[in-house]
Design a protein that fits this description.
The chain is mainly α. The protein has a domain of 57 residues. It is built from 7 helices and 2 strands; from the N terminus they run αααααααββ. Strand 1 and strand 2 form a beta hairpin. Helix 2 runs antiparallel to helix 3 and helix 2 runs parallel beside helix 4.
Length: 142
């Protein structure tokens, strides 16, 4: 089943959250996070749990394909909503360097990384663990 078909569209929200936050590594989790992202856009009280689930599935691992959280993160970022960005900043404050790096590398297009990161800093007080230069390149804080 393709993500766009929203496998869990008829499932209870609590069950979607349980599947999305399950520690196992399986495709159902990607579908649940994708559905949770859409529900969080309709119900901002779900944004925190959505970003927490997504954050746990953003780090790129060799030979395993794209992280399971990327499609759901893209749905939220593409919505371009202030509430989404505020909840993202709250979640990212506890993310590791790898999680923040892979979020910016996997979700935000290179030409937009610098502007996006600076917007999060100026609007919400984001304290990034990676430095992004004007060209969209980054370096970890030393």
């Amino acid at each position: 089943m393709r993500l766009e078909e929203r496998m869990y569209s008829e499932t209870d929200t609590q069950q979607v959250i349980e599947i999305a936050s399950h520690p196992g590594w399986h495709l159902d989790k990607a579908h649940a996070m994708y559905e949770l992202a859409f529900r969080a856009l309709e119900d901002p009280s779900l944004l925190s749990v959505a970003w927490n689930c997504i954050g746990n599935e953003l780090v790129v691992m060799n030979r395993q394909g794209p992280p399971l959280g990327q499609p759901a993160a893209t749905v939220l970022v593409d919505a371009n909503q202030e509430a989404v960005e505020r909840a993202l900043v709250e979640a990212m404050q506890v993310w590791s360097i790898e999680q923040q790096r892979d979020f910016f590398l996997g979700i935000i297009a290179k030409p937009e990384r610098y502007t996006y990161c600076n917007r999060l800093i100026s609007k919400f007080g984001f304290d990034p663990k990676v430095d992004i230069d004007i060209n969209g390149n980054f370096a970890e804080h030393l």
